Amino acid sequence: MTSPPHWLLGRITWDSVPMAHEPIVLWTFIAVVLGGLVVLAALSKYRLWGPLWRDWICSIDHKKIGIMYMILGLVMFLRGFADAIMMRLHQAMAVGENLGYLPPHHYDQIFTAHGVIMIFFVAMPFVTGLMNYLVPLQIGARDVSFPFLNNFSFWMTTGGAVLVMLSLFLGEFSTSGWLALSNLGAQDPGVGLDYYIWGLQVAGVGTTLSGINLIVTIIKMRAPGMQLMKMPIFTWTALCTNALIVATFPILTAALVLMTLDRYLGTHFFTNDLGGNSMLYVNLIWIWGHPEVYILVLPAFGVYSEIVPTFARKRLFGYTSMVYATVVITILSYLVWLHHFFTMGSGATVNTFFGITTMIISIPTGAKIFNWLFTMYRGRIRFTVPMMWTIGFMVTFAIGGMTGVLLAVPPADFVLHNSLFLVAHFHNVIIGGVVFAVFAGINYWFPKAFGYRLVESWGKASFWFWLTGFWVAFLPPYILGLMGVTRRVSHFEDPTVQPFFVVAAFGAVLIAAGIACFLIQLAVSFQRRSELRDLTGDPWDARTLEWATSSPPPQYNFAFTPVAYEIDAWWDMKKHGYQRPLSGFAPIHMPANTAAGFVIAMLSTLFGFAMIWHMWPLAIGSLAAIILATIVHTFNYQRDYYIPAADVADAEALRTRQLAQAAHV
């Protein structure tokens, strides 16, 4: 029987510290502490605390917030991939009498954490970071509509990530899978599921507000002449993605609120007794969960739609059909959620409807693939690193899409649903679609964000390790799935499956080499940044408005709001011999930095932590502090300032000198 919670510390006891009895966690903790000390020492030695606080933590510049989203995604990606490597090594060992090196309870935590981190705290920050950075630049705006909200959204997302990471060293994480499906009915009373609930609730608030912000930005802040059907495709995909976010994340919030009531107040929404029904939760989580897949992949499609025309040196084939395909996918993504549980007894009629809608949604996706192929057809293709990632995506994603159509057939799904085939399919579309797009996008827009290109050689090495590693890692699960090997299992009795798992583990090692090459690429490029410097602001001879600014862009983005006449506005301006204005600059009105977003988000994170551990005094205190901090912020009237015209003139004069220098090189 568990002892009653402490009045102040709640459920925290010495047993809550896993380092005391888990050597893997202990060594991880030591490594994290040492790494943290190195970072703190570096910040102190180079006197970076002030700039870090003023220019980054308190920043409401959409470009810096976008970069911080990308950094958050990269840090969490390393954690999520560490979980993946641990699982792959364990599965390669845990066959027959060998039980592997992870206890089943620890394995279940790792596989839950891997899924949660990779979707919510890797893929989401990556695509949100790209949208934050690029959308205002692409539509000719100076910032997003609600700059403070942008800062607050980022720190709420970070707060959710902090709670998930904290579960590694205090308490435990959920063991019920990335959508918490296996704890329904009879729920685990431990803190693992509570970490899951509060981590996602805190991060979900940030994502929802970010979605509202970007929709309003795209609708209300486009440059003169940029009608909806003249927007870059990436901005179109961002608009559709954020519409999905605003429509679906409240459903996730509601499902988690009801689960919280079940756990904290003893209600029976999702239990198997007193009128509850766990299928209600399964429906709610997947009505959010399937649009979430498109929330991730639509911006990825947008990235490829920017890269292909640039490196094929042709206008995107079928712009209008590409826009319609994006909108159709957005709408249809709401009509397919039940294909995630064909096996749960909805009946033949319902299964048939959702099977057909799932097949239909593959049609606009296929249309996009053909649009990219036709854009490349007879183009003068430059095989740069972003273009290689794009071609790798087209091959990989096409195969992943075909296995998806196979799973859309209910009788086939009955056979394959709970097998490793499904795991392979999901990774095929998310890695082949989203992760490849992220690496393509980083290589493509890095010179815009930091003013120097990334080294090509290490980028190509990373690409080839990733592409080969992916197929070596995920072809065996396809085969095992067809053989009937089930997913979510930490040990297998049949020794004949072991060679497949060993090959898959080797594939994970190849992917690790690809990640290492990417990190080396960042380091080597930084060392050689002077020779890789981009003075033109347009190193790829690209087509959209973000390339009309310097690299990196000034704080105000554009000294004069650009005017768009064509779909590829910057390409059209270059074609007609556009000349930058060199005089007549006026003061520019800009929003001022504030610490309020960071403070309120960290208080929200503290509130989540207190609720996880039933620390009621801290929960009440932090909730009161959130309300107080919000009220105080409403009385802050120092929200904006003007960049003097002289400063704008100086920045533009520097840009003129850089362009002249680039012309002589």
Automatic annotation (TrEMBL):
SUPFAM superfamilies: Cytochrome c oxidase subunit I-like. InterPro entries: Cyt_c_oxase-like_su1_dom, Cyt_c_oxase-like_su1_sf, Cyt_C_Oxase_1, Cyt_c_Oxase_su1_BS, Cyt_c_ubiqinol_oxidase_su1. Keywords: Cell membrane, Copper, Electron transport, Heme, Iron, Membrane, Metal-binding, Respiratory chain, Transmembrane, Transmembrane helix, Transport. It is a multi-pass membrane protein. GO terms for cellular component: plasma membrane. One of its GO terms (molecular function) is cytochrome bo3 ubiquinol oxidase activity. It comes from the Bacteria. It is found in: Cell membrane. Residues 47-565 form the Cytochrome oxidase subunit I profile domain. GO terms for biological process: aerobic respiration; electron transport coupled proton transport; respiratory electron transport chain. Pfam families: COX1 (PF00115). The chain crosses the membrane at residues 24-44, 65-90, 110-134, 154-175, 195-221, 233-259, 279-304, 316-338, 350-374, 386-409, 429-446, 458-480, 500-524, 619-637. Belongs to the heme-copper respiratory oxidase family. This is Cytochrome bo3 quinol oxidase subunit 1 apoprotein. It comes from Oryzisolibacter propanilivorax.
